[in-house]
Amino acid sequence: MAATGRRKTIIVTGDLIIDHNLVQHPDAPPYHHEPMRKTVLCREAGGAWYLQSLIEHLLAESGETTHITGPKQDERTLAQKDSHVSKAYMIWKPFEKVKDHQEKVWRIDSFLGCQRPKEGAVPVPIIGDTVSPDLLVIDDICLGFRDDEALWPLSVKKGRGPRNILVKTSLPPGGVLWKHLLARYADRLTVVLTVEALRSRGADITRALSWDKAINQTVDEISNGFSQEDLALCRRVIIHYGCAGGAASFSRLRPHFDRSTGLKKSARFETFVYHPVNLEGSVKAKMPGMTFGASSIMTAAVARHIIQPDGYPLFIALGRSLAAMSHIHESGGGDFKGPDECFSTEKAHLEANKVLNHTVGKNEPAAEFRAAFPHEILSDNRLRKQRPDDSNLLQDLTGAGSEYILAKATDVVLRGPVKALGSAPMARYGKYITVDRDEIERINALRNLILAYKHNSDDRRPLSIAVFGPPGTGKSFAIKQLGHEVLDGAKPLEFNLSQFHDVSELHEAFHLVRDESLRQEIPLVFWDEFDTSFGKPLAWLKEFLAPMQDSEFIANGVPHPFAKAIFVFAGGTKDSLDAFDRSDSRGKAGDDFRNAKGPDFVSRLRGYLNVKGPNPVSGKPGGANGSGAASHDTGYMIRRAIILRSALESAFLRLIDADTQMAAVSTSIIKGFLLAEKFRYGARSIEQLVKMSTLEDSRMFEVSHLAPRELLKLHVTSDFEKHVASGELEAPVVEILAEACHSAWSIERKKDEWTYGHERDDEKKKHPLLLPYDDLKEEDKEYSRVTARLTSAKLHEIGYEIVRRKPGAAAGGAMKKFTAAEKRKMMKIEHDIWMRGRLSSGFAWAKNSNDELFLNRCIAPFDKCFISDKDKDLDRAIVESIPAALWDNGYQLRKTKSIERSK
Description:
This protein is an alpha/beta fold. The chain folds into four domains: 8-40 and 52-104 and 130-370, 3-Layer(aba) Sandwich (UDP-N-acetylmuramoyl-L-alanine:D-glutamate ligase), CATH 3.40.1190; 392-431 and 616-726, no CATH class; 437-606, 3-Layer(aba) Sandwich (Rossmann fold), CATH 3.40.50; 731-895, Globin-like (Orthogonal Bundle). The chain has 30 helices and 26 strands. Strand 5 and strand 6 (104-115) form a beta hairpin. The protein starts with 7 loop residues before the first strand and ends in an 8-residue tail after the last strand.
């Protein structure tokens, strides 16, 4: 990349550290007189020195002409005892590179602390200090720099000050420096800090539950917490959640479509970059040991963004730095190849630089992340009015309204949950998958409980948790898959209490549990149907009170202590903890529960999980041509889709194409499964209906393969057949619509002589998306298929439905065309769908579009002047192609009632 203009000056300063890396060899000699095989001490420059080196490497390949300087660093400075330099000590040892794998790398085993400089220590001079650098970067590790003006650079003490200031801090704002910066330079100040820094001053931000909750709580902290008094006054604040996790950005900058001048009064939500599967701490949980430098990596990336905003957009900076944090932790101090091999952190630093300096193009590190965004940019009233502290990342993917959820659920069955729900936060433990926010948060809360219990040797009481759900929801399956992952593959013990006749059988089970726990393992014990018995309901509860509280049981007057164990109580009669717990209920139900020691039992539980299953939690299926009142639980269709896809893979794997992973199943059948009022036995019924189908050697699951009506009634309500009969756009018609949309779109693009994005490397030298539909790659065809699959949902919004054309109707003669108002409304819907996809993928607005940098000129509200008529013609062409494509293939549009949407 060529240089872009004048030389820019960057000064990096702050707390200085010399890291003393000590190696703990596995075969260290036991006596003083025996020599060590290798030197076990390695000194490295840390703190602001390390941050400066990262910025130098990152900007060296930026194309910008820069002069980067900082505190003097030479052997004399490092060795000088009275310099204002701290000394940190840590012990490194070999760890499994990834848990349960033989390959090992060097990582930090323990941090021994940091020795601060002595009072009156001599400041280390800043080489080439200047009063007005383009960027001043401060590494504030709370080791004296923030409170000692003698250490500060000239630019914050006099003159006009730096053009931009970037501060990395390990604690919340405080001290003399922060008061000075906020008073004089808040409009120029960008801050990078960890979420732990906010928690350290009381921010209510829970750990590793869901990204939706993380967004909501972080927004609340910046807007209403302690941070509204300091961080919210800065130009931009970036809060990160660690490697391959997430990062939130709040800014006083106005959106590009807001023509108001100046900065906003306080910082508002800008974006939240997150990994759909990983949560805070999940990567490090799989890779034991510690590493440092995560905040320095992100700060270096943000520094390049400040210097080169168009060439290194914010999403690239945050996404790459999150990926680089993961790489540096995985690499650690290099591979461990034996006791004679010493460690070196150079490999980890090289890995981080590779990620941060990745060549623009294929395999972009940031592409594995997704982004939440402010909804004011959208046209749809239901989404535009959604507050930043009311995050719903799944809805950002599906769209608002049951028709859109139906379309996405159909996509899940056809392509599988990983492909169809790739942007949605997802909890995946073994074969258990859920995108339901409530289930994600509860299952992750249990994961946190189990991990904390596992590592707390002082906690000897059994960890007691309960799991509830309707029959057939897979209650035990979810916990078993979680337990297998966090308990190193331990096999669970299972006891069905409904089959126990007396307490002696329970004591026998306790003995088996005790034997397992005394083998230095933590057994995962399932007490199925704990709320039933052959005698009095809830009779078993009182028998568990002593084991849960005192970690022992008494048999024949003799106490028998347990070691550590995890008790999982799976309910058999109630769908949720609220339905089970009658502690505060009046009447007979409450009296019976209290007499059975129910309140005492509940008080001993440390966690619970309500598994929702395939039926709506409340009400009946509503909308999307469903029957009954609308249900607030709109996610039931997605849950059904995941279960149905799993059942197809289990029973008829031949229906799943090995290359594309597309399922060969009629969308009419899918519609029946997704919209039926109720499956009588939950997920078990869906699985049975699939197995009962008479597919034999068929390669396509058609309506004719379904079981007879009499057998269907065993597992599903009678409306199932009605929904199947009403039909849905089948795959061939979707393909025709996709081709029509692509053709209309590409014709308009060719008029515009479209060139942005990477070119196709062949003799035609055409952009890959401008080829004829049949010549497109499968992943490129998906762009048009996504639009085509949403056709029914989009038409529903303007008051139309798709019906089969009556036999004998003349082709072209009576084809319905949209009115000008209907066409414009469809164009706005089309733009919203396109833009939600781009925004979720990290795109931002720029004057010149560049797919490889996640920039597009059309990221703007549809009615704003930023979108040219030529760009709007793309949406117009797609909309106008729909009626003809449907008509020519045996379908037509019929007027119906529309749902409410923005004008």
